[in-house]
Design a protein that fits this description.
The complex is a heterodimer of chains A (about 280) and B (about 290).
Chain A: H1 3-34, H2 38-41, H3 59-67, H4 70-101, H5 107-117, H6 126-136, H7 142-146, H8 153-164, H9 168-176, H10 181-189, H11 194-209, H12 213-218, H13 227-236, H14 242-277
Helix pairs in contact in A: 1-14, 3-14, 4-8, 4-11, 5-8, 9-10, 11-14, 13-14
Chain B: H1 2-40, H2 58-65, H3 67-97, H4 105-117, H5 120-130, H6 139-146, H7 161-186, H8 190-198, H9 203-214, H10 216-231, H11 235-240, H12 252-262, H13 266-293
Classes of the chains: A mainly alpha (about 280), B mainly alpha (about 290).
Amino acid sequence: MTKRKTFEKFAFYFGNTLIALIFVSPLIWMISSSLKPESEIFKGLNSLSTFFPKGASLSNYIEVFQRINMWKFIGNSLFYVLVIIVLDLLVNSICGYALAKFEFRGKNLLLTLVISLMVFPAEAIMLPMYREMADLGWINSWASLIVPFVAKCFSIYMFRQFFLGIPDELLEAASIDGCGPVRTFFRVVMPISGTVYATIFILDFVAHWNDFMWPLLVVTGEEKRTIQLAIQTFFGSKPINYGPIMASLTISAIPMLIMFIFLQKYYVEGIASTGIKG
Amino acid sequence: MKKSINKISERRAAYIFILPAVVLLAAFLIYPSLQTVRYAFTDYNIMRPDRIVFCGLNNFTELLKDEDFWIAVKNTLYFTVLVVPFQTVLALALALLISSRRKGVSIFRAAYFSPQVTSMVVVAILWTVMYNSSPDSGLLNALLVKLGLEPCGFLNDPKTAMNSIIFMSAWQGAGYQMMIFLAGLQGISREQYEAASIDGAGKIQSFFYVTLPGLKSVIQYVVMITVIQAMKLFTQPYVMTKGGPQNSTRTLVYYIYEQGFQKRNFGYACAVAAVFFVIVISLSLGMKKIIKAE
Protein backbone atom coordinates (compact mmCIF):
# COMPACT_ATOMS: atom_id res chain seq x y z
CA MET A 1 0.00 0.00 0.00
CA THR A 2 1.51 3.27 -1.05
CA LYS A 3 1.42 6.36 1.09
CA ARG A 4 -0.77 8.04 -1.44
CA LYS A 5 -3.40 5.32 -1.26
CA THR A 6 -3.48 5.49 2.52
CA PHE A 7 -3.92 9.22 2.33
CA GLU A 8 -6.75 8.88 -0.20
CA LYS A 9 -8.50 6.39 2.02
CA PHE A 10 -8.14 8.66 5.01
CA ALA A 11 -9.37 11.67 3.03
CA PHE A 12 -12.37 9.69 1.81
CA TYR A 13 -13.53 8.62 5.25
CA PHE A 14 -12.61 11.81 7.05
CA GLY A 15 -14.09 14.08 4.41
CA ASN A 16 -17.28 12.10 4.04
CA THR A 17 -17.80 11.77 7.78
CA LEU A 18 -17.41 15.50 8.26
CA ILE A 19 -19.63 16.45 5.33
CA ALA A 20 -22.25 13.84 6.22
CA LEU A 21 -22.41 15.11 9.80
CA ILE A 22 -22.88 18.69 8.64
CA PHE A 23 -25.43 17.52 6.11
CA VAL A 24 -27.60 15.67 8.59
CA SER A 25 -27.03 18.10 11.47
CA PRO A 26 -30.51 19.67 11.08
CA LEU A 27 -32.06 16.23 11.54
CA ILE A 28 -29.81 15.47 14.49
CA TRP A 29 -30.83 18.77 16.02
CA MET A 30 -34.48 17.91 15.44
CA ILE A 31 -34.17 14.62 17.29
CA SER A 32 -31.97 16.05 20.00
CA SER A 33 -34.40 18.93 20.63
CA SER A 34 -37.33 16.54 20.72
CA LEU A 35 -35.70 14.85 23.73
CA LYS A 36 -34.99 18.05 25.66
CA PRO A 37 -37.16 19.98 28.08
CA GLU A 38 -38.48 23.20 26.52
CA SER A 39 -36.13 25.45 28.51
CA GLU A 40 -33.06 23.60 27.27
CA ILE A 41 -33.73 23.67 23.52
CA PHE A 42 -32.54 27.19 22.84
CA LYS A 43 -29.82 27.18 25.51
CA GLY A 44 -26.28 26.98 24.22
CA LEU A 45 -27.34 27.00 20.56
CA ASN A 46 -23.86 28.13 19.62
CA SER A 47 -22.15 25.17 21.24
CA LEU A 48 -22.03 21.57 20.17
CA SER A 49 -24.12 20.59 23.19
CA THR A 50 -27.18 21.72 21.28
CA PHE A 51 -26.89 18.48 19.32
CA PHE A 52 -26.74 16.29 22.42
CA PRO A 53 -29.59 16.14 24.89
CA LYS A 54 -28.53 15.82 28.49
CA GLY A 55 -30.72 13.40 30.33
CA ALA A 56 -33.00 12.59 27.42
CA SER A 57 -36.67 12.37 28.22
CA LEU A 58 -39.71 11.28 26.25
CA SER A 59 -42.02 13.84 27.85
CA ASN A 60 -42.33 15.82 24.60
CA TYR A 61 -43.52 12.70 22.84
CA ILE A 62 -46.03 12.01 25.58
CA GLU A 63 -47.29 15.58 25.26
CA VAL A 64 -47.77 15.20 21.50
CA PHE A 65 -49.89 12.10 21.96
CA GLN A 66 -51.88 13.81 24.71
CA ARG A 67 -52.59 16.92 22.68
CA ILE A 68 -53.36 15.38 19.31
CA ASN A 69 -54.41 12.00 18.04
CA MET A 70 -51.15 11.14 16.32
CA TRP A 71 -52.02 7.47 15.87
CA LYS A 72 -55.16 8.36 14.02
CA PHE A 73 -53.40 10.74 11.64
CA ILE A 74 -50.62 8.28 10.91
CA GLY A 75 -53.27 5.61 10.42
CA ASN A 76 -55.23 7.88 8.07
CA SER A 77 -52.17 8.50 5.94
CA LEU A 78 -51.13 4.87 5.91
CA PHE A 79 -54.65 3.83 4.96
CA TYR A 80 -55.24 6.15 2.04
CA VAL A 81 -51.70 5.85 0.71
CA LEU A 82 -51.78 2.06 0.79
CA VAL A 83 -55.18 1.92 -0.91
CA ILE A 84 -53.92 4.22 -3.68
CA ILE A 85 -50.88 1.99 -4.12
CA VAL A 86 -52.79 -1.30 -4.30
CA LEU A 87 -55.20 0.13 -6.87
CA ASP A 88 -52.36 1.81 -8.78
CA LEU A 89 -50.45 -1.47 -8.97
CA LEU A 90 -53.47 -3.27 -10.36
CA VAL A 91 -54.98 -0.70 -12.71
CA ASN A 92 -51.75 0.59 -14.20
CA SER A 93 -50.01 -2.75 -14.51
CA ILE A 94 -52.79 -4.29 -16.57
CA CYS A 95 -52.91 -1.20 -18.76
CA GLY A 96 -49.13 -1.25 -19.15
CA TYR A 97 -49.28 -4.93 -19.97
CA ALA A 98 -51.89 -4.39 -22.69
CA LEU A 99 -49.70 -1.66 -24.17
CA ALA A 100 -46.67 -3.93 -24.10
CA LYS A 101 -48.05 -7.26 -25.24
CA PHE A 102 -51.47 -6.96 -26.88
CA GLU A 103 -52.48 -5.75 -30.30
CA PHE A 104 -55.62 -3.63 -30.37
CA ARG A 105 -57.02 -0.65 -32.17
CA GLY A 106 -56.02 2.68 -30.66
CA LYS A 107 -52.90 1.24 -29.04
CA ASN A 108 -50.52 3.80 -30.48
CA LEU A 109 -52.88 6.62 -29.70
CA LEU A 110 -53.15 5.49 -26.09
CA LEU A 111 -49.40 5.15 -25.75
CA THR A 112 -48.82 8.63 -27.15
CA LEU A 113 -51.46 9.97 -24.79
CA VAL A 114 -49.89 8.28 -21.77
CA ILE A 115 -46.47 9.66 -22.60
CA SER A 116 -47.70 13.19 -23.20
CA LEU A 117 -49.98 13.26 -20.16
CA MET A 118 -47.00 12.29 -18.00
CA VAL A 119 -45.79 15.89 -18.00
CA PHE A 120 -49.14 17.38 -16.97
CA PRO A 121 -48.61 19.29 -13.74
CA ALA A 122 -51.32 18.34 -11.24
CA GLU A 123 -51.06 21.82 -9.72
CA ALA A 124 -52.53 23.34 -12.88
CA ILE A 125 -55.74 21.34 -12.70
CA MET A 126 -56.40 21.30 -8.98
CA LEU A 127 -59.16 23.91 -9.15
CA PRO A 128 -61.52 22.03 -11.50
CA MET A 129 -60.52 18.82 -9.71
CA TYR A 130 -61.73 20.36 -6.50
CA ARG A 131 -64.95 21.39 -8.19
CA GLU A 132 -65.35 17.86 -9.53
CA MET A 133 -64.91 16.45 -6.03
CA ALA A 134 -67.52 18.87 -4.75
CA ASP A 135 -69.94 17.86 -7.52
CA LEU A 136 -69.44 14.21 -6.68
CA GLY A 137 -69.99 14.98 -3.01
CA TRP A 138 -66.53 13.69 -2.22
CA ILE A 139 -65.09 16.61 -0.26
CA ASN A 140 -63.63 15.35 3.01
CA SER A 141 -64.04 11.71 2.01
CA TRP A 142 -61.55 8.94 1.34
CA ALA A 143 -62.67 8.92 -2.28
CA SER A 144 -61.30 12.40 -2.91
CA LEU A 145 -57.94 11.40 -1.46
CA ILE A 146 -57.74 8.12 -3.35
CA VAL A 147 -59.70 7.86 -6.61
CA PRO A 148 -58.11 10.72 -8.59
CA PHE A 149 -54.63 9.27 -8.03
CA VAL A 150 -55.16 5.65 -8.97
CA ALA A 151 -54.45 5.91 -12.70
CA LYS A 152 -50.98 7.31 -13.32
CA CYS A 153 -49.32 7.73 -16.68
CA PHE A 154 -45.92 7.37 -15.09
CA SER A 155 -46.80 3.99 -13.60
CA ILE A 156 -48.36 2.79 -16.84
CA TYR A 157 -45.21 3.74 -18.68
CA MET A 158 -42.91 2.07 -16.15
CA PHE A 159 -44.97 -1.12 -16.25
CA ARG A 160 -45.02 -1.13 -20.04
CA GLN A 161 -41.25 -0.73 -20.22
CA PHE A 162 -40.80 -3.62 -17.84
CA PHE A 163 -43.29 -5.95 -19.54
CA LEU A 164 -41.71 -5.30 -22.94
CA GLY A 165 -38.73 -7.20 -21.61
CA ILE A 166 -40.70 -10.37 -20.92
CA PRO A 167 -40.06 -12.88 -23.73
CA ASP A 168 -43.03 -13.66 -25.96
CA GLU A 169 -42.10 -17.36 -25.89
CA LEU A 170 -43.07 -17.48 -22.25
CA LEU A 171 -46.52 -16.07 -23.01
CA GLU A 172 -46.94 -18.39 -25.97
CA ALA A 173 -46.06 -21.36 -23.80
CA ALA A 174 -48.72 -20.33 -21.33
CA SER A 175 -51.20 -19.94 -24.15
CA ILE A 176 -50.42 -23.42 -25.48
CA ASP A 177 -51.03 -24.73 -21.98
CA GLY A 178 -54.52 -23.34 -22.32
CA CYS A 179 -54.14 -20.09 -20.40
CA GLY A 180 -56.21 -17.20 -21.74
CA PRO A 181 -54.54 -13.78 -21.87
CA VAL A 182 -56.03 -12.69 -18.55
CA ARG A 183 -54.94 -15.81 -16.72
CA THR A 184 -51.52 -15.64 -18.33
CA PHE A 185 -51.05 -12.19 -16.88
CA PHE A 186 -52.09 -13.03 -13.34
CA ARG A 187 -50.56 -16.50 -13.18
CA VAL A 188 -47.40 -16.15 -15.24
CA VAL A 189 -46.44 -12.51 -15.70
CA MET A 190 -47.29 -10.99 -12.32
CA PRO A 191 -45.36 -13.51 -10.22
CA ILE A 192 -42.12 -12.86 -12.11
CA SER A 193 -42.48 -9.07 -12.09
CA GLY A 194 -41.90 -8.40 -8.40
CA THR A 195 -39.21 -5.80 -9.01
CA VAL A 196 -41.34 -3.41 -11.00
CA TYR A 197 -44.20 -3.74 -8.51
CA ALA A 198 -41.87 -3.06 -5.61
CA THR A 199 -40.39 -0.06 -7.40
CA ILE A 200 -43.76 1.52 -8.12
CA PHE A 201 -44.85 0.69 -4.57
CA ILE A 202 -42.06 2.66 -2.96
CA LEU A 203 -42.13 5.55 -5.46
CA ASP A 204 -45.88 5.87 -4.86
CA PHE A 205 -45.49 5.60 -1.12
CA VAL A 206 -42.99 8.43 -0.97
CA ALA A 207 -44.99 10.63 -3.33
CA HIS A 208 -48.34 10.25 -1.58
CA TRP A 209 -47.11 10.05 1.98
CA ASN A 210 -45.49 13.43 1.39
CA ASP A 211 -48.37 14.95 -0.50
CA PHE A 212 -49.51 18.13 1.15
CA MET A 213 -51.34 20.33 -1.29
CA TRP A 214 -54.22 18.09 -2.31
CA PRO A 215 -55.13 16.93 1.23
CA LEU A 216 -54.94 20.59 2.25
CA LEU A 217 -57.70 21.32 -0.27
CA VAL A 218 -60.07 18.40 0.20
CA VAL A 219 -59.69 17.51 3.88
CA THR A 220 -61.48 19.62 6.44
CA GLY A 221 -61.55 18.76 10.12
CA GLU A 222 -59.86 15.96 12.00
CA GLU A 223 -61.68 12.90 10.76
CA LYS A 224 -59.63 12.38 7.57
CA ARG A 225 -56.65 14.54 8.50
CA THR A 226 -53.39 13.22 7.09
CA ILE A 227 -50.12 13.18 8.98
CA GLN A 228 -48.64 16.04 6.93
CA LEU A 229 -51.66 18.23 7.62
CA ALA A 230 -51.57 17.20 11.27
CA ILE A 231 -47.99 18.30 11.91
CA GLN A 232 -48.58 21.51 9.98
CA THR A 233 -51.66 22.24 12.11
CA PHE A 234 -49.79 21.27 15.28
CA PHE A 235 -46.97 23.63 14.34
CA GLY A 236 -49.42 26.52 14.24
CA SER A 237 -51.53 25.67 17.27
CA LYS A 238 -51.03 27.15 20.71
CA PRO A 239 -49.28 26.72 23.05
CA ILE A 240 -46.29 26.79 20.72
CA ASN A 241 -43.73 24.61 22.46
CA TYR A 242 -40.82 23.60 20.33
CA GLY A 243 -40.04 20.37 22.14
CA PRO A 244 -43.36 18.75 21.23
CA ILE A 245 -43.16 20.23 17.71
CA MET A 246 -39.79 18.56 17.17
CA ALA A 247 -41.21 15.36 18.63
CA SER A 248 -44.16 15.47 16.21
CA LEU A 249 -41.78 15.96 13.27
CA THR A 250 -39.68 13.03 14.38
CA ILE A 251 -42.67 10.74 14.84
CA SER A 252 -44.06 11.62 11.44
CA ALA A 253 -40.79 10.69 9.74
CA ILE A 254 -40.71 7.20 11.22
CA PRO A 255 -43.14 5.33 8.92
CA MET A 256 -41.33 6.54 5.83
CA LEU A 257 -38.00 5.68 7.39
CA ILE A 258 -39.16 2.11 8.01
CA MET A 259 -40.55 1.81 4.50
CA PHE A 260 -37.29 3.14 3.13
CA ILE A 261 -35.14 0.73 5.10
CA PHE A 262 -37.05 -2.23 3.71
CA LEU A 263 -37.49 -1.09 0.15
CA GLN A 264 -34.36 1.02 -0.22
CA LYS A 265 -33.00 -1.12 -3.04
CA TYR A 266 -36.12 -0.72 -5.17
CA TYR A 267 -36.40 2.97 -4.46
CA VAL A 268 -32.83 3.57 -5.54
CA GLU A 269 -33.35 1.42 -8.61
CA GLY A 270 -36.56 3.25 -9.40
CA ILE A 271 -34.91 6.64 -9.21
CA ALA A 272 -31.92 5.47 -11.19
CA SER A 273 -33.97 3.79 -13.91
CA THR A 274 -36.15 6.84 -14.46
CA GLY A 275 -32.95 8.80 -14.96
CA ILE A 276 -31.36 6.48 -17.44
CA LYS A 277 -34.39 5.81 -19.56
CA GLY A 278 -35.29 9.49 -19.46
CA MET B 1 -58.72 -20.98 -36.74
CA LYS B 2 -57.27 -21.30 -33.27
CA LYS B 3 -55.05 -18.34 -33.93
CA SER B 4 -57.93 -16.05 -34.84
CA ILE B 5 -59.84 -17.02 -31.71
CA ASN B 6 -56.73 -16.16 -29.77
CA LYS B 7 -56.56 -12.80 -31.48
CA ILE B 8 -60.14 -12.02 -30.63
CA SER B 9 -59.76 -13.02 -27.01
CA GLU B 10 -56.54 -11.04 -26.87
CA ARG B 11 -58.24 -7.94 -28.20
CA ARG B 12 -61.06 -8.33 -25.75
CA ALA B 13 -58.60 -8.78 -22.91
CA ALA B 14 -56.75 -5.67 -24.08
CA TYR B 15 -59.85 -3.52 -23.84
CA ILE B 16 -60.68 -4.89 -20.42
CA PHE B 17 -57.11 -4.24 -19.30
CA ILE B 18 -56.96 -0.64 -20.45
CA LEU B 19 -60.51 0.26 -19.47
CA PRO B 20 -60.05 1.19 -15.78
CA ALA B 21 -56.98 3.32 -16.43
CA VAL B 22 -58.54 5.02 -19.44
CA VAL B 23 -61.75 5.85 -17.58
CA LEU B 24 -59.88 7.21 -14.57
CA LEU B 25 -57.46 9.25 -16.67
CA ALA B 26 -60.33 10.70 -18.66
CA ALA B 27 -62.25 11.60 -15.51
CA PHE B 28 -59.45 12.91 -13.32
CA LEU B 29 -56.82 14.21 -15.70
CA ILE B 30 -58.25 15.07 -19.10
CA TYR B 31 -61.63 16.36 -17.95
CA PRO B 32 -60.22 18.72 -15.30
CA SER B 33 -57.58 19.91 -17.77
CA LEU B 34 -60.27 20.91 -20.23
CA GLN B 35 -62.28 22.47 -17.43
CA THR B 36 -59.29 24.60 -16.44
CA VAL B 37 -59.28 26.09 -19.92
CA ARG B 38 -63.06 26.54 -19.88
CA TYR B 39 -63.20 28.23 -16.49
CA ALA B 40 -60.31 30.48 -17.45
CA PHE B 41 -62.71 32.31 -19.76
CA THR B 42 -65.40 32.78 -17.11
CA ASP B 43 -65.94 34.92 -14.04
CA TYR B 44 -66.61 31.84 -11.90
CA ASN B 45 -66.67 32.69 -8.20
CA ILE B 46 -66.59 29.75 -5.83
CA MET B 47 -69.42 31.20 -3.74
CA ARG B 48 -71.75 31.23 -6.74
CA PRO B 49 -71.21 27.96 -8.61
CA ASP B 50 -74.63 28.26 -10.24
CA ARG B 51 -73.76 31.48 -12.00
CA ILE B 52 -70.79 31.09 -14.32
CA VAL B 53 -70.65 33.70 -17.05
CA PHE B 54 -68.37 33.59 -20.05
CA CYS B 55 -66.23 36.69 -20.04
CA GLY B 56 -63.92 36.24 -22.98
CA LEU B 57 -60.34 37.25 -22.49
CA ASN B 58 -61.13 39.44 -19.48
CA ASN B 59 -59.17 37.26 -17.05
CA PHE B 60 -56.14 37.31 -19.26
CA THR B 61 -56.14 41.06 -19.87
CA GLU B 62 -56.61 41.42 -16.12
CA LEU B 63 -53.60 39.18 -15.59
CA LEU B 64 -51.34 41.36 -17.68
CA LYS B 65 -52.18 44.30 -15.42
CA ASP B 66 -52.02 42.30 -12.19
CA GLU B 67 -48.89 43.27 -10.34
CA ASP B 68 -49.18 40.36 -7.90
CA PHE B 69 -49.27 37.92 -10.78
CA TRP B 70 -46.05 39.28 -12.22
CA ILE B 71 -44.43 39.18 -8.79
CA ALA B 72 -45.43 35.52 -8.59
CA VAL B 73 -43.95 34.85 -12.04
CA LYS B 74 -40.77 36.64 -11.07
CA ASN B 75 -40.46 34.78 -7.76
CA THR B 76 -41.06 31.41 -9.41
CA LEU B 77 -38.44 32.07 -12.07
CA TYR B 78 -36.01 33.44 -9.49
CA PHE B 79 -36.40 30.30 -7.40
CA THR B 80 -36.00 28.04 -10.43
CA VAL B 81 -32.99 29.83 -11.90
CA LEU B 82 -31.13 29.67 -8.58
CA VAL B 83 -32.21 26.36 -7.12
CA VAL B 84 -31.59 24.29 -10.25
CA PRO B 85 -27.85 24.94 -10.66
CA PHE B 86 -27.30 24.95 -6.90
CA GLN B 87 -29.10 21.69 -6.29
CA THR B 88 -27.63 19.98 -9.36
CA VAL B 89 -24.06 20.91 -8.48
CA LEU B 90 -24.61 19.89 -4.87
CA ALA B 91 -26.07 16.55 -5.98
CA LEU B 92 -23.21 15.91 -8.39
CA ALA B 93 -20.66 16.78 -5.72
CA LEU B 94 -22.28 14.39 -3.26
CA ALA B 95 -22.41 11.65 -5.89
CA LEU B 96 -18.71 12.12 -6.65
CA LEU B 97 -17.89 12.02 -2.94
CA ILE B 98 -19.31 8.53 -2.63
CA SER B 99 -18.78 7.14 -6.11
CA SER B 100 -15.82 4.99 -5.12
CA ARG B 101 -16.44 1.42 -4.10
CA ARG B 102 -15.26 1.44 -0.52
CA LYS B 103 -16.62 -0.17 2.56
CA GLY B 104 -19.24 1.86 4.36
CA VAL B 105 -20.20 3.93 1.35
CA SER B 106 -23.85 3.03 1.87
CA ILE B 107 -23.84 4.79 5.25
CA PHE B 108 -22.75 8.05 3.65
CA ARG B 109 -25.22 7.53 0.84
CA ALA B 110 -28.03 7.10 3.36
CA ALA B 111 -26.90 10.23 5.20
CA TYR B 112 -26.99 12.39 2.07
CA PHE B 113 -30.31 10.90 1.13
CA SER B 114 -31.91 11.24 4.58
CA PRO B 115 -33.56 14.67 4.02
CA GLN B 116 -35.45 13.02 1.17
CA VAL B 117 -36.85 10.42 3.52
CA THR B 118 -38.24 13.11 5.80
CA SER B 119 -41.11 14.85 4.08
CA MET B 120 -41.05 18.41 2.77
CA VAL B 121 -43.52 19.55 5.42
CA VAL B 122 -41.26 18.18 8.15
CA VAL B 123 -38.11 19.84 6.87
CA ALA B 124 -39.98 23.08 6.13
CA ILE B 125 -41.15 23.29 9.75
CA LEU B 126 -37.73 22.28 11.05
CA TRP B 127 -35.96 24.94 9.00
CA THR B 128 -38.52 27.60 9.93
CA VAL B 129 -37.45 27.03 13.53
CA MET B 130 -33.77 26.95 12.59
CA TYR B 131 -34.09 30.15 10.55
CA ASN B 132 -35.50 32.11 13.51
CA SER B 133 -34.10 35.61 13.17
CA SER B 134 -32.99 35.93 16.79
CA PRO B 135 -29.59 34.45 17.65
CA ASP B 136 -31.10 33.36 20.97
CA SER B 137 -33.62 31.04 19.40
CA GLY B 138 -32.41 30.44 15.85
CA LEU B 139 -29.81 27.76 15.34
CA LEU B 140 -28.36 29.30 12.17
CA ASN B 141 -28.15 32.80 13.59
CA ALA B 142 -26.45 31.47 16.71
CA LEU B 143 -23.90 29.91 14.38
CA LEU B 144 -23.44 33.13 12.38
CA VAL B 145 -22.87 35.12 15.57
CA LYS B 146 -20.41 32.55 16.78
CA LEU B 147 -18.47 32.93 13.52
CA GLY B 148 -18.39 36.67 14.16
CA LEU B 149 -20.96 37.53 11.48
CA GLU B 150 -24.08 39.66 11.65
CA PRO B 151 -27.31 37.75 12.35
CA CYS B 152 -29.49 37.38 9.28
CA GLY B 153 -33.23 37.98 8.95
CA PHE B 154 -33.68 34.81 6.87
CA LEU B 155 -37.42 34.26 6.42
CA ASN B 156 -38.36 37.58 8.01
CA ASP B 157 -36.49 39.70 5.53
CA PRO B 158 -37.91 40.07 2.00
CA LYS B 159 -34.36 40.22 0.68
CA THR B 160 -33.34 36.85 2.09
CA ALA B 161 -36.60 34.90 2.45
CA MET B 162 -36.55 33.29 -1.00
CA ASN B 163 -32.84 32.55 -0.77
CA SER B 164 -33.47 30.80 2.54
CA ILE B 165 -36.13 28.65 0.88
CA ILE B 166 -33.75 27.91 -2.01
CA PHE B 167 -31.01 26.78 0.33
CA MET B 168 -33.32 24.50 2.27
CA SER B 169 -34.96 23.07 -0.85
CA ALA B 170 -31.61 22.21 -2.41
CA TRP B 171 -30.56 20.50 0.81
CA GLN B 172 -33.78 18.50 0.90
CA GLY B 173 -33.84 17.59 -2.77
CA ALA B 174 -30.20 16.95 -3.62
CA GLY B 175 -30.26 13.35 -2.39
CA TYR B 176 -32.71 12.38 -5.10
CA GLN B 177 -30.62 13.78 -7.93
CA MET B 178 -27.52 12.30 -6.30
CA MET B 179 -29.02 8.83 -6.78
CA ILE B 180 -29.53 9.51 -10.49
CA PHE B 181 -25.96 10.76 -10.81
CA LEU B 182 -24.62 7.70 -9.00
CA ALA B 183 -26.34 5.47 -11.53
CA GLY B 184 -24.92 7.62 -14.32
CA LEU B 185 -21.41 7.44 -12.89
CA GLN B 186 -21.58 3.67 -12.92
CA GLY B 187 -22.24 3.86 -16.64
CA ILE B 188 -18.86 5.43 -17.29
CA SER B 189 -16.38 2.64 -17.85
CA ARG B 190 -13.19 2.24 -15.84
CA GLU B 191 -11.19 2.02 -19.06
CA GLN B 192 -12.01 5.59 -19.95
CA TYR B 193 -10.53 6.79 -16.67
CA GLU B 194 -7.51 4.56 -17.13
CA ALA B 195 -6.97 5.83 -20.65
CA ALA B 196 -7.16 9.39 -19.40
CA SER B 197 -4.73 8.66 -16.63
CA ILE B 198 -2.26 7.07 -19.08
CA ASP B 199 -2.53 10.23 -21.14
CA GLY B 200 -1.35 12.05 -18.04
CA ALA B 201 -4.67 13.48 -16.92
CA GLY B 202 -4.98 14.33 -13.22
CA LYS B 203 -8.13 14.00 -11.13
CA ILE B 204 -9.41 17.41 -12.16
CA GLN B 205 -8.71 16.90 -15.84
CA SER B 206 -10.31 13.50 -15.92
CA PHE B 207 -13.39 15.04 -14.26
CA PHE B 208 -13.70 17.58 -17.06
CA TYR B 209 -12.73 15.29 -19.92
CA VAL B 210 -14.24 11.97 -18.86
CA THR B 211 -16.82 12.38 -16.09
CA LEU B 212 -18.70 15.45 -17.30
CA PRO B 213 -19.02 14.35 -20.96
CA GLY B 214 -20.00 10.87 -19.80
CA LEU B 215 -22.75 12.32 -17.63
CA LYS B 216 -24.06 14.73 -20.22
CA SER B 217 -27.41 13.09 -20.85
CA VAL B 218 -27.90 12.38 -17.14
CA ILE B 219 -27.19 16.02 -16.30
CA GLN B 220 -29.69 17.14 -18.92
CA TYR B 221 -32.31 14.84 -17.47
CA VAL B 222 -31.63 15.97 -13.91
CA VAL B 223 -31.83 19.62 -14.92
CA MET B 224 -35.12 18.98 -16.68
CA ILE B 225 -36.86 17.29 -13.75
CA THR B 226 -35.44 19.82 -11.30
CA VAL B 227 -36.71 22.73 -13.37
CA ILE B 228 -40.21 21.26 -13.55
CA GLN B 229 -40.24 20.48 -9.85
CA ALA B 230 -38.99 23.97 -9.03
CA MET B 231 -41.75 25.60 -11.08
CA LYS B 232 -44.32 23.90 -8.82
CA LEU B 233 -42.98 25.42 -5.60
CA PHE B 234 -45.80 25.59 -3.07
CA THR B 235 -45.31 23.66 0.16
CA GLN B 236 -42.28 25.60 1.36
CA PRO B 237 -43.80 29.09 1.06
CA TYR B 238 -47.12 27.80 2.40
CA VAL B 239 -45.56 26.32 5.53
CA MET B 240 -42.69 28.74 6.05
CA THR B 241 -43.76 32.21 4.97
CA LYS B 242 -47.34 32.25 3.66
CA GLY B 243 -45.95 33.97 0.58
CA GLY B 244 -44.43 36.82 2.60
CA PRO B 245 -42.71 38.92 3.72
CA GLN B 246 -43.93 41.56 1.26
CA ASN B 247 -44.86 38.95 -1.35
CA SER B 248 -41.24 37.93 -1.69
CA THR B 249 -41.99 34.19 -1.65
CA ARG B 250 -45.37 34.13 -3.34
CA THR B 251 -45.05 31.73 -6.25
CA LEU B 252 -47.32 30.94 -9.19
CA VAL B 253 -48.83 27.83 -7.62
CA TYR B 254 -49.23 29.68 -4.34
CA TYR B 255 -51.00 32.45 -6.23
CA ILE B 256 -53.33 29.95 -7.91
CA TYR B 257 -54.16 28.53 -4.48
CA GLU B 258 -54.66 31.95 -2.97
CA GLN B 259 -56.85 33.32 -5.77
CA GLY B 260 -58.88 30.16 -6.14
CA PHE B 261 -59.42 29.09 -2.57
CA GLN B 262 -58.85 32.09 -0.37
CA LYS B 263 -60.13 34.91 -2.56
CA ARG B 264 -62.55 32.56 -4.29
CA ASN B 265 -61.89 33.96 -7.76
CA PHE B 266 -62.11 30.56 -9.36
CA GLY B 267 -62.24 31.71 -12.97
CA TYR B 268 -59.35 34.08 -12.52
CA ALA B 269 -57.30 31.42 -10.72
CA CYS B 270 -57.96 29.05 -13.62
CA ALA B 271 -56.56 31.65 -15.99
CA VAL B 272 -53.39 31.78 -13.86
CA ALA B 273 -53.35 27.97 -13.84
CA ALA B 274 -53.67 27.88 -17.63
CA VAL B 275 -50.71 30.22 -17.99
CA PHE B 276 -48.76 28.13 -15.49
CA PHE B 277 -49.68 25.01 -17.44
CA VAL B 278 -48.44 26.49 -20.71
CA ILE B 279 -45.17 27.58 -19.10
CA VAL B 280 -44.47 24.17 -17.56
CA ILE B 281 -45.41 22.22 -20.69
CA SER B 282 -43.37 24.42 -23.00
CA LEU B 283 -40.40 24.22 -20.64
CA SER B 284 -40.51 20.44 -20.54
CA LEU B 285 -41.12 20.05 -24.27
CA GLY B 286 -38.42 22.61 -25.04
CA MET B 287 -35.89 20.83 -22.87
CA LYS B 288 -36.86 17.44 -24.32
CA LYS B 289 -36.30 18.81 -27.79
CA ILE B 290 -32.87 20.10 -26.88
CA ILE B 291 -31.96 16.73 -25.41
CA LYS B 292 -33.21 14.84 -28.46
CA ALA B 293 -31.52 17.22 -30.91
CA GLU B 294 -28.11 16.45 -29.48
